[in-house]
């Protein structure tokens, strides 16, 4: 199964203090862009792959989703998701997304936020999501951007002239990248953009929107520390349709 | 109209000495990957946008294409294309791709090699190509990769540990990039990957394959200088269908 770093105490402690953990969707700068890519959840059957604290599940329920299933591998996160959710249309289940299987075509929308870069068998997961969606059903996800992930030693650098740059190396070398983010030894899977998109296409999806996420001018004005996100994309947002 | 750098004497002189100019398709390391994305040209009506010396047009004709139209803005390149081509199915025309218009649906395949990053109105061109293709017709192109193009000061660097890296900055700042490649002041248009793909989707295309091109192990063995192309992609290859 995929590494369950979220149940590592140090990681969980760090993660629980991020603005996206404390404030939910409003604390995630990419949320407005992702939301614009989503169908309105009203009356839809929704599955959230890597639901974390359940912020998206509760939002979908508030928007009138007919059914919301939140899946996560982390026991600790699910505990908090359950404790924070009262809407009866939402159910949570612990699931290793690499082992998961769905009954045929039970969902109108599959959503996944910053989870798929932990998955080793992404091809298999895309195929399962495709089977889980009704024809015309949508998959919308965010994933760490290959530009952000490729380097063996990621991090801001300054060039000889003192300009801030992001290093890219090892781009074609797909596979695990180990970083020390919140905890040591967090393992993510680097793939090229082509691979991510071709796996979707190979699973039967039609790609409808691709976005190398960057902050808007208004977001940078409100939170100047976001300016560096315009230099290189940290997140790739993708919408696809069965 | 787009900058016609190919008729700049210094640029033309330098360009004419590149292996892709001397050896044609065999001198372009990305050609096997592009070829794998192409339909077999036999009996197809083909248009090449930015045909240069006509290497692709002659290849398509040799493969039995029913009609091949090569378009280029460079008078000098077209002169050489015409002088090098005897197959009567091939015709060349001088055209500024930004001013171009096609009659409806006359082609089965549109091809473009390393030309579209010179185009300011890419949206308009994709729409014209879409109209020029029959339903089911294909567009296959290569374009300089946004990772390669984004930086205001592109070029290999070494980090503090002496490791070779490629800088990325200014990724979200779309628009002109001026470089001194073969001649001073060559103007290219940087776009994010999302923008390139969304313009295609917006023009009515279905994306069928995306490849951040890198050399194969066999290519690196034969030409060790290609190894650095595995560190960061220089070319983006895309196949789409009307």
Compact overview of the structure:
2 copies of one chain form a homodimer. Chain A is an alpha/beta fold.
Number of domains of chain A: 1
Sheet with the most strands: spatial strand order of chain A:
3-2-1-4-5-11-10
Question: Largest inter-chain interface?
Answer: A-B, 41 and 41 residues
Q: pLDDT under 50 segments of chain A (min length 5)?
A: none
Topology of chain A as a string of helices (H) and strands (E): HHHEHEHEEHEHEEEEHEHE
Q: Could you list some keywords that capture this structure?
A:
homodimer, 242 residues, alpha/beta, Rossmann fold, seven-stranded mixed sheet, two-stranded antiparallel ribbon, 9 helices, 30% strand, globular
Structure description:
The structure is a homodimer of 242-residue chains. With 242 residues, the first copy, chain A, is α/β, with parallel strands linked by helices. Chain A contains nine helices and eleven strands. Helices cover 28% and strands 30% of the residues of chain A. The two termini of chain A are 26 Å apart. In chain A, the strands form three sheets. A seven-stranded mixed sheet of chain A has the order 3-2-1-4-5-11-10, sandwiched between helices. A two-stranded antiparallel sheet of chain A has the order 6-7. Chain A has a two-stranded antiparallel ribbon with strand order 8-9. Chain A has a single domain (5-146, 187-241), classed as 3-Layer(aba) Sandwich (Rossmann fold). Chain A is globular, with a radius of gyration of 18 Å. Strand 7 of chain A pairs antiparallel with strand 7 of chain B, so a sheet runs across the interface.
């Amino acid at each position: 199964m995929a590494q369950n770093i979220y149940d590592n105490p140090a990681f969980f402690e760090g993660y629980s203090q991020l603005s996206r953990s404390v404030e939910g969707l409003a604390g995630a700068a990419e949320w407005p862009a992702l939301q614009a890519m989503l169908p309105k959840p009203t009356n839809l059957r929704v599955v959230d792959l890597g639901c974390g604290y359940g912020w998206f599940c509760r939002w979908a329920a508030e928007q009138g989703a007919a059914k919301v299933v939140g899946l996560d591998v982390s026991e600790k996160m699910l505990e908090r998701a359950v404790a924070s959710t009262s809407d009866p249309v939402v159910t949570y289940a612990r699931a290793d997304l690499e082992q998961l299987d769905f009954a045929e075509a039970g969902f109108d929308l599959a959503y996944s936020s910053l989870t798929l870069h932990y998955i080793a068998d992404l091809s298999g997961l895309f195929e399962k999501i495709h089977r889980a969606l009704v024809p015309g059903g949508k998959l919308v996800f965010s994933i760490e951007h290959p530009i952000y992930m490729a380097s063996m030693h990621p991090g801001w650098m300054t060039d000889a002239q003192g300009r801030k740059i992001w290093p890219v190396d090892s781009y074609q070398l797909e596979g695990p990248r180990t970083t020390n983010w919140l905890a040591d030894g967090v393992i993510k899977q680097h793939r090229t953009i082509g691979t991510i998109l071709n796996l979707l296409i190979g699973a039967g999806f039609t790609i409808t929107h691709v976005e190398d996420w960057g902050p808007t001018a208004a977001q940078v004005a409100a939170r100047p520390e976001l300016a560096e996100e315009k230099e290189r994309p940290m997140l790739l947002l993708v919408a696809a349709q069965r």
